[in-house]
Amino acid sequence: MSHQHPRKLSPRLVGAGGAVVGLTLLLLYLSGAIGGHKVEPGTTPLPPAVLEGEEFLVVARKMPDLVDWPGAVRSRVVANVAARVLARVSEVRVAMGSSVKAGEVLVVLDAHEFAAKREQARAAVAVAEAEAQHAAQEERRVRALFEQNAATQRDFDAAVARSRAAAAAWHRAREALDEAEVALGETFLRAPFDGIVASRLVDPGDLAVPGEPLVVVHDPSTLRFETSVGESCSGTLSVGGSLSVRLDQPRRELQGRIEEVSPQADPMTRSVRMKLALPELPDVRHGAYGVARVPCGEHVAMLVPTTAIQRRGQLEFVYVRTPEGVRVRQVRSGKTFGDQVEILSGLRAGERVVVPRNQQG
Question: 3-class SS at 288?
């Protein structure tokens, strides 16, 4: 007679059953059914700094819609220092951003060819001078003979002609020497005024072509911001008005005074050209990028002090005074207007926000 042995449960099945039992016990514990008491819901009391904070009314105010228009810093006084002679660049004595004085040498060109031409011109002047002196002496000698009836009229006229031709040749030789001296001087390119080097466009060994700028110098005391504003936003622009200008390098915001406004819009871009005078900025360079903030319409904004906004990571919230006490409310902020910030959602006009005591002022 055979005996049947009981079948053993697999370890995997035993483990799964244990996990189910453990999860059930955990849920019962968390619900308070076993091992303790269920925690009743409640509120976390706010710190005294909030409860004793100063209250501010949420106000609704018409604010301008500000549109940023990109532009660049330019100088009224800009010099493109270019060569007047064709030559290789021998030396560049300045770098971009260098301060220079009027007359300071910026670039030196190869002067060998021009120095040789000057020496040739000097030699030609010496020869022409000697010939002119000899012709003048001959004229005086023939004149004396002519006055004594010892020379004919023809001889006298010929001597005078030779003397005048030699003198003219000497004059032309001196002019050629002056031109050679000027050409040699043109191998030294100098700063036309006190200023800042905005651009250095060549290096030693480059070919300097007449008329092509090698260095750009600007006067930092005459900066202005130039931009184009959309025609639909140009109605409020007037000479003498003030606009906010934000620069990137270095990052700063300042006030610019409108100096020029184009009387008509560009027919292709439908934009109006505008120039704003800027205060003297020694650390701002010609060509720096920025934006001008131009009012373009208006809207009603809910405003609260910037100190009322609390932030936790990406979340923004404020403390609001309600009949039930101070409550936390999530909000979404917008643009900042001085010491006030616009609230896009989460508050209504007439409500009161609380600024914690340690954030006031």
Answer: coil
How many helices and strands (H and E) does the chain possess?
A: 4, 21
**pLDDT tens digits, residue range 76-113?**
888 999 999 999 999 999 998 888 999 999 999 999 99
CA 285-287-290 angle, to 5 degrees, is 95
Number of neighbours of residue 16 by Cβ within 10 angstroms: 11
- N residues, the chain: 361
CB 353 within 8 A of CB 347: yes
| Token reading at 232 | 């639909």
322 has which bridge partners?
325
pTM flag (> 0.70) = no
How far, in whole angstroms, is CA 126 from its chain's centroid? 56
Distance, in Å, from the CA atom of 68 to the CA atom of 197, rounded to the nearest integer, reads 29
On the question of a cis peptide bond just before residue 295, with omega within 30 degrees of 0, the verdict is no
Question: Do 139 and 226 form a contact (C-beta atoms < 8 A)?
Answer: no
Proportion of the chain in helix, strand, coil states, percent, rounded to 5: 30, 40, 35
pLDDT digits (tens, 9 = 90+) for 321-344: 888 888 899 999 988 888 899 999
